[in-house]
Specification:
Elements: E1 32-33, E2 40-44, E3 54-64, E4 72-79, E5 81-86, E6 89-95, E7 103-109, E8 119-121, H1 129-139, E9 159-160, E10 181-182, H2 188-200, H3 215-229, E11 241-242, E12 285-287, H4 292-310, H5 314-332, H6 343-358, H7 364-376, H8 403-414, H9 421-440, E13 451-453, E14 464-465, E15 475-477, H10 493-509, H11 513-526, E16 564-565, E17 571-572, H12 581-584, H13 588-601
Parallel strand pairs: 1-8, 9-12
Antiparallel strand pairs: 2-6, 3-4, 3-7, 5-6, 7-8, 10-11, 11-12, 13-15, 14-15, 16-17
The protein binds zinc ion.
Zinc ion (ZN) binds at residues 142, 153-154, 174, 179.
């Protein structure tokens, strides 16, 4: 347990389950802000008592030089604090969006010595993240790869779970802080790499992996080769996972699927370094079962690969095209199954169909039918989506959290002239106005609460009543319920980054600047602007969640699960090193979602006038 914070003028320390909260009283993004972004700080009301307002100090301008003691920095902006009351408690919020000059700053309270960590304002403040995340993904390669730190692994993946036959499923990446590989989540970074290329023209060539002339494409190809191996030669279906483990946790309260997330009852049977020798007896299992999300996720990725590789690697491009079409054909026989009543599955199907329509494979009428079904799954009164065609429970997802909005925004962007585009736009407008915007306003950090509920799903957990026009009998939690079925209660970086992605898309299709601001708020929350001053990304910020990465160690750019909830819906994160997978485990999903968001949010080229050192 850490030393209690004593004797600082930064206000009394708050108690948490992990001990007193550490760090400054004023919460702000520990990375920083773009010049024209909305910029806010938050402080618990109890720690702002007596303060007249707040100031922003420019750390490059020293007012008084003190050799032994603190320097005094020049105040460049003064602002007032606005009260905020909600499930997180009483807060004061300050807005300093008017400060646009690039620089290194901090916030302080007037009449109190409370302060924030330093932060940067520059249009390039997020620009190093794509390369950081790319290098992290590279380090998590599974199969025939080694670097200074680690050797090759799992060359003997694996054995089919149905026949026991040895097949070649080596390659890909480890999905998380463990060694398992999942087709519905592990391959998502590829989608984000293509998005970085198309929206930001991001390019780098450090690794020199022939025939690729770009690191993003080299890394994408590494993952794509694994996807191709994971396709059943007999049916065209993609398998579920490699080394996903057994199902010893399956029970009355625990099932394979939970809130659109597969594999929730899988155990650790596949979490070991094997001997790398096929047929020796310790090969991990390739689970051959059907997962509809995995089909559409990987079909979508393969369809994007066609154009990305067409020019310099045409044979590979053709392989990707063939595999995608085989999967789509396989799914034609599954379109009437129960999974195709799920909003998450239909959203991913639409994303694949949009790409196939652009290739002339899927008719416009089929796209229109899919869009219509998705529109019908929205609550007219509440603006939220339903989980499935039964229209009973509001949509929630540990992964794919904002998928209906993401899919419909992609449809609009694919064809603004389509007769249905206006309807889809109206649906997203209703989503924003009736549901998303009010939920963001429930807390001083502007984050999207985890989910809406028709009733308390678990005993002992606090649910907040939602009081909005047009809705009644709805509740919400900021975090997952602590007593979630099957013990699945983990940090929701995957959820907040999915919302950052969706909000960046909503900002474009609805032409709403508030959506763009809200997208950045989701990222700021994960970069330390939260009650515990905890950053969920290794290497970013000053107080990191301790990574759960028990096979390959900590690594800059690793994106942890992040904050999770207690029964009273307050925040918890492992800052002490107790090594909790639930908040500290690295995961590809938040990393991929964050890149998808950033591709739509940050400038492809940063003007010199928006960089540090610019003349003021
Ligand atoms: Zn491996």
């Amino acid at each position: 347990m850490s030393e209690p914070m004593r004797g600082t003028a930064n206000g009394p320390a708050r108690g948490t389950a992990n001990g007193p909260a550490r760090g400054p009283a004023i919460h702000a993004s520990q990375l920083g802000y773009l010049c024209d972004s909305r910029k806010r700080i938050a402080i618990e009301a109890g720690r702002a008592e007596g303060a007249g307002g707040f100031e922003i100090q420019d750390l490059s301008r020293i007012d008084a030089q003190v050799l032994e003691g603190r320097e005094s920095w020049k105040t460049v902006l003064r602002g007032s604090l606005t009260p905020h009351e909600g499930p997180m408690g009483a807060y004061r919020v300050g807005d300093f969006s008017d400060l646009r000059a690039p620089g290194v700053y901090r916030a302080v309270l007037q009449g109190s010595a409370a302060f924030s960590y330093p932060f940067v304002i520059s249009d390039g403040v997020f620009s190093r993240l794509p390369a950081l995340f790319l290098d992290y993904v590279h380090s998590r390669r599974c199969g025939d790869f080694e670097d200074e730190l680690r050797g090759p692994c799992h060359l003997d993946d694996g054995r089919r779970s149905d026949t026991g036959e040895q097949v070649d499923a080596s390659g890909g990446w480890h999905d998380a802080g463990d060694l398992r590989k999942w087709m519905a989540t592990t391959t998502l970074p590829i989608l984000s790499f293509f998005e970085l290329r198309s929206r930001l023209a991001f390019s780098r060539y450090n690794w020199r992996e022939r025939p690729h002339e770009d690191d993003l494409l080299a890394e994408a190809a590494w993952g794509l080769r694994w996807i191709l191996k994971m396709q059943d030669p007999g049916t065209g279906m993609f398998f579920e996972d490699v080394g996903g483990g057994g199902e010893s946790r399956r029970g009355p309260a625990s099932s394979w699927w939970d809130e659109n997330h597969a594999g929730c009852c899988a155990d650790n049977a596949g979490n070991f370094f094997s001997d790398n020798r096929p047929e020796s007896g310790d090969e991990r299992l390739v689970r051959v079962q059907y997962n509809p999300v995995a089909q559409y996720v990987n079909a979508t990725i393969l369809l994007d690969a066609i154009d990305n590789f067409h020019a310099h690697y045409p044979a590979f491009s053709t392989l990707c095209r063939t595999a995608a079409l085989r999967c789509w054909d396989f799914m034609k026989g599954r379109r009437r199954d129960g999974f195709h009543q799920w909003t998450s599955v239909l959203s991913w199907r639409l994303l694949a169909a949009l790409r196939l329509h652009a290739m002339g494979v899927v008719a416009e009428s089929e796209v229109a039918a899919l869009v219509s079904v998705l529109l019908d799954l929205q609550s007219r009164e509440g603006g939220f989506w339903f989980m499935d065609a039964s229209r009973t429970e509001p949509y929630r997802g540990i992964v794919n959290s904002a998928q209906p909005a993401i899919a419909l925004a992609a449809f609009i962007e694919s064809d603004y002239e389509n007769p249905l585009a206006a309807q889809a736009r109206d649906s997203l407008e209703q989503h924003w106005a009736k549901c998303v915007s009010p939920l963001l306003a429930t807390n001083p950090f502007g984050i999207m609460p985890y989910g809406l509920y028709t009733s308390a799903r678990t005993g002992g957990d606090l649910y907040h009543e939602l009081r909005l026009p047009g809705t009644s009998g709805l509740f919400y939690r900021v975090f997952m319920p602590a007593a979630a079925p099957g013990g699945v209660n983990h940090g929701l970086a995957s959820h907040w980054t999915s919302w950052a992605h969706a909000l960046s898309a909503l900002a474009r299709v609805l032409e709403r600047r508030e959506c763009r601001h809200a997208a950045f708020d989701q990222l700021a929350w994960l970069m330390g602007s939260n009650p515990l001053n905890a950053s969920a990304i290794s290497g970013i910020g000053f107080q990191n969640v301790v990574p759960y990465s028990n096979f390959q160690g900590p690594m800059a750019g690793g994106f942890c699960n992040g904050p999770r909830g207690r029964p009273d819906d307050s925040m918890e994160a492992d800052l002490d090193g107790t090594i909790q997978w639930s908040t500290g485990e690295y995961w590809m999903v938040p990393l991929a979602n964050a890149l998808l968001a950033l591709a739509g949010l940050i400038p492809s080229e940063v003007l010199q006038s928006k960089k540090l050192g610019a003349a003021r």
